[in-house]
Amino acid sequence: MQTVFERPQSLKDVPSHFCPGCHHGLIHRLVAQNLDRLGLQQQTIGVASVGCSVFLYAYLDVDVIESPHGRAPAVATGAKRVQSDKFVFTYQGDGDLAAIGTSEIIHAANRGEAFSVLFVNNTTYGMTGGQMAPTTLLGQESATSPGGRSAERDGHPIRMAELLAQLDGVAYSTRVAVDSPQHVRQADKAIEKAFRLQRDEGRFAFVEILSTCPTNWGMDPRRANARVAEEMIPCFPLGIFKDTQSQEGNQ
Amino acid sequence: MSQSTPARVFLKGNEAVCYGAIEAGCRYYFGYPITPQSEIPALMSSELPKHGGQFLQAESEVASINMLLGASACGARAMTSSSSPGISLKQEGISYLAGSELPGLIVNISRSGPGLGGIDASQADYFQAVKGGGHGDYRMIVLAPHSVQEMYDLTMHAFDLSDRYRMPAMLLGDSLVGQMKEAIELRPRPEVELPAKDWIVTGKGGREEQRIVKSLFLGDGELEAHNRHLQAKAQALRANEVMAEEVALEDAELVLVAFGAAARIAKTAVRMAREAGLKVGMLRPITLFPFPEQHLARLAETARRFLCIELNTGQMVEDVRLAVNGRREVHFYGRPPGTGSLPTPEELYEQIRESY
Fold first, then answer.
1. What CATH number is associated with residue B287?
2. Is B235 part of a structural domain of the chain?
3. Are residues B41 and B178 in the same domain?
4. Helices then strands, each counted (H, E), chain A
5. Do B204 and A68 touch (CB under 8 A)?
6. B249-288 residue pLDDT tens
7. Chain A closest CA to B123's CA: distance in Å?
8. With a CB-CB cutoff of 8 Å, which residues 207-236 of chain B face chain A?
9. Which of B70, B72, B205 is facing A76, going by the closest CB pair?
10. Domains detected in chain A
11. Residues B69 and A78 sit within 8 Å (Cβ to Cβ)
């Protein structure tokens, strides 16, 4: 019998605690298969953030530092400066990276720190119960935006991949989604590219991944998945916003 | 350094901290500018690269303490320094260092507050340093130098204690000891045995088990056990690591208690009192945590009265009262900080006479 699909070595064989339909498990798998593909598992230090993704170490079989809310880029800066020959990545949600940790991500990116950032954008604070995030769409109802997010009261959704693309320290900034097989393959390639940029050139790369939170969106998994294409991508366009290796890639 | 004859040099307190840190093996500094500790990042930025280390000016106090967290988790001796308002911002990270059992040195060349306050010598951060400061049930090693020599020596000692107990350490100075210049000896790093850092994250590198540095414990009983473990370390510090200077205590009827800059001034007042024939001595806590409570309890058996001197309106005096436990009177004299409010030896001598 020929094996055509198996669990990556970097991914543990354990039951998941994530809600049905949540994309974290899928993104964890993409991370793990890229660590395997690039031969990085034994030299990787993951930096977990606060929120649903804090249990990174429960699923990925790599060394992990847990960081305070939003501070993963600062923790990763200290880690990578000490162990510059290791592979370091942060895994952060939108409340973490685009709200409380805005300062840390912008300055780590601007310094061009030699680590990779995976930014899971599901337009809400998942673990605390579905409050409004900086990425919450206009009109989106949340625990703290009853009646929908209002631009006048709450401001507009922040587009982090575009924002960070402006900074000279960034080698690669892209936005992908994991709502369809085609998008999953694109996301896989984006993560691989980001990881290669660190491994081979010591460059900072940023991958924003649009994903679902069916529980807090109040949707079944299929409807939540459809929402990514119907509502999120129009606000958060997929694409490469900076690629220092390819001038054509820059938009 | 490591030469047999210590170099004798004329340094500012803040500069002595830097040379102490480098001699102790610190190779990473993360910080953000604030007065009156600016000499520390400035000197580190020029000195650390000479020793193969790195200086990084962070975008904020919050970022700098978390850079320290990452560096410490990866096994480095690392430090940050700041002054009172900046230390408030670092408290989140200090709590995480404590919860994650990470060593690291935080230097607080404290200034006056609350709020922006001023840059005068102040001891208004005593509560914040020894009672937690950040959230959660934790203790931190706190050392209080009162001279430039101690700024150097205690910086090295703080790193060793911090590694031994896997606990953050604070060097609590103030603008008086930070800014004044004295001749000191740059002594070689003391030889001490420290436990191997078999917990740091390095990438698995063929290891069977992954290593995780964390402070989140959600399983039944896990967090309680973790907190009891943290408290057991604090208890071991209380039993083994208390440091205090005793000044003219053998027959003292009145015992002054003061630390840091206040103790320097008080020492002169004690000498004046002795010259006037008063039986006055002083206990100077060098470790503020662990606090010399046993020293004070013993002194309460013989002395008649205690007088606590602080550059604030009364913080350490609460710990002095707890240690004396109602057996003797504890008087207090303090001045809240501000330009021109540093007490003179004559002023403290008057207080001694009143309390005697």
1. 3.40.50.920
2. no
3. yes
4. 11, 9
5. no
6. 999 999 999 999 999 999 999 999 999 999 999 999 999 9
7. 29
8. 210-216
9. B70
10. 24-130+157-243 (3.40.50.970)
11. yes
